[in-house]
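Justification of computing resources. Each target in the renewal requires a structure prediction run like the one illustrated here; the chain below, 217 residues long, is used simply to show the kind of job we budget for.
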Amino acid sequence: MFAEGNENIVRVFNSETGATSSAEYRDLTTQAVPLDMGLEGLCGCTILVVVSQEAVYFAHFFEDMAFIKGDRRNAPEPDFQGQVLSFLESGLPRLEPGTKRRKKNGERYDSLKQHADSFKTGVKAFILTPQNETKDAPGDEVIYVPGQLYEEQINQLKMKVLEILPDAGIIEYMYQAVNAKTAEGMKALDKTAKGKALYQFDPEQRKDLQKVWENWR
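Resulting structure tokens:
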């Protein structure tokens, strides 16, 4: 769990929002109070955080909906095009809480493209994705090996981001996904920093940095 005191965090994903990829956008030019935005329970999914001095776009892409077929009975085939690439281009329908049903009012998660003009200064796109694992580890053991688990799809993700934001600098990170099906994995997700991603913005700090920049210009 996130530390106490973060009750007002903007959760990019939680179990009550429905089983689909998701995203949150904020205009930082009008953000008058500190902003915390993030998620927890990351154990195979990929996130994209696009930031600039003017805006932030934080997206979460489900592993077993976009990258691989889940192991649940009647699990659907992965839809990387719809859950990631088309999502960034044109958004994605929001679901009724705890269901797979689309909201009746047609509400959608914002696309990155619809906010492209907001990202102007110092644009960076951070991608956090799982590290590669061996396919023949015994039992529930996880053995990590060099490289990204979904390198081909991440390359497509990078190409889509650059198509929308040609000047974005892309920074990639890998994390070692724990096995959430084990007691040890669940404990790590609940009691440690594993599986958590947090973006923080403080408008007062930005003002101070702008003052420093003005002095050194």
